[in-house]
Prior knowledge:
The protein has 569 residues and is an alpha+beta fold. It has helices at 3-9, 12-33, 37-52, 114-122, 125-140, 156-163, 168-200, 209-214, 226-233, 250-253, 255-259, 262-268, 298-312, 318-349, 354-365, 369-385, 409-412, 450-460, 487-498, 508-515, 519-533, 537-543, 551-564; strands at residues 59-61, 71-73, 75-77, 80-84, 88-94, 100-106, 418-421, 434-440, 472-476, 502-506.
Amino acid sequence: MDIFELLVNNDFFWLSILVVIFALIYKLIALIMMPFEPFYKKLVEYENKKQWRKDGEPKLYFDPSEGTLSPVGIKYQGGNASFETNELSVFLSGDGSGKVNSTLWMKGKAPKNRTTYFRNNLLTNNFLQELFYYALDESISSEWNLREEEKISTIVSEIEDIGSKDDNINVITISILICKIAINRRREEIRSQLEEMWTKSGGRGEIDPDWLDKQRHTSGSSGMTLEEEDKLLYIDIRCHNSTWIQGLAYRNMMKQVLENNEEVLEAVGGNWTKNPWKLKGVEENIPYHLAWPQTVGTRRGESFVKILHAVEVEEMPPELVLRALLFLRIDNNNETIRIRNQLMRTLDEININSQTLRELLIEHACQHWRTLELATHALMQVAYSYELPLPVIGEFRRPLNIKSGNSADVKSGDIGDIQFPHETYIDERGKKFIEYAIDCKLFFDENNVSADLIDVVNRWSHEEVPQNQLSVFEWIGPETPTLDDTNKTQRAREFLENNGVTLRFSTLHTLADDLGLENNHVHIWINRYAQILCKSQEMRDEYGAEILNTSAWVNSLIASLSNNSTEEE
């Protein structure tokens, strides 16, 4: 009987026996090989060098236990690798010469109340405000060129990469740096306290390590001994939760930073995400080592771990790195304000007839899937404001707020990019019933939406988040979307139509015509679209607009309007 048959027949007894036999054979081989361990190590070293030069996923022989070697399958990425056990996080990195360096972190429960201690004792609002305002003052008051700052010269490209976007990874980096600064300051305070005690005791010169250890029983902050407080400060900032002994639960702790210091954050500018750790991959149970196998966008992921490595391992001043990132945020925010004002001035000054303006808007919208969504949402806002009845439904309705660009439709219960709620709609999972939904598609090879049609059927009948109150589902594309004529597609179409769902296939042109959009509405439409692209506060308040960095989109819209501002209405 082979292994496959054992599994199929669920004969776990014999399977267990087989596993035990294999384990005993493996142990016997290991015992036989022990006298040859020096030769074995040389063989392993040669194999490592050979495999490391190859692309793909090598099988390295590595076991952190001293004096033992065993075959281990590892994750491999760009010359670095990692694997996890219940007790360890292990990272291996190559330097190009074939040599493999290893880094190990012990898993286990972090000291009790570490996160609470940080939140209450170190990351006070006064500390945070002082830290932010100092960095801001230093950045604003001087003509600072961070590329000329020698102390951060080795990672200046990485800092610029992280600082180029006001996104989750930017906020996470800043938050971790704040923690590192707090750690360094408190450690220095403890050291000064011990030096003072040493001086008073009649000591001379440098602190005697043996004497220092004896003093750890003396009083620290919050009723703790210095020994207890020292354990709380023994942190590697690359360990982003409490599953490692050196870890810190950033997710829970940084809510305080982001929620209680809105005035300071507003002064810095940009988008401060209140829950940055929702970013996919960032919260994986793996420390932020140079060999970190998770990615948040390959380039930005690499920049992120390089910055943390420089601060934690190479002891680069975290205050300076923080200042650089805040400086870039301010600079980016000022640029955003500049181009927003330029766009609004251009809209005020243009001399373009409504038909041409409509064509320009639609052409600009069709350059990216996200701009197509935003232009369509802006159009439906105009329809609502001017009481233009929706197709099929025949009534004007307010669209739900603009969705996040990375929202998970199925998980959240959404069914389209632009949505109009059913009268039974409740903003709770499983109760977000939509009456009219629009899905925006930017086609590359063909405009067939048959796969999406099947998905609509699945959404309609979903067990946890059903959308069985749907009346209209519409696809919008640069060209009119189509369906294929397969039996599966036809059955899906019949299912929806038999359940009262009207399917529509449109472009922005045809949708605008079906709404009865008039010439005077076009100027309102493009102004709404521009406000969304510029992330205006008015639009955020009204429709919750939170979108991707759009400087390039705004600049291209300015150029298109300026180049065509020659006609009279």
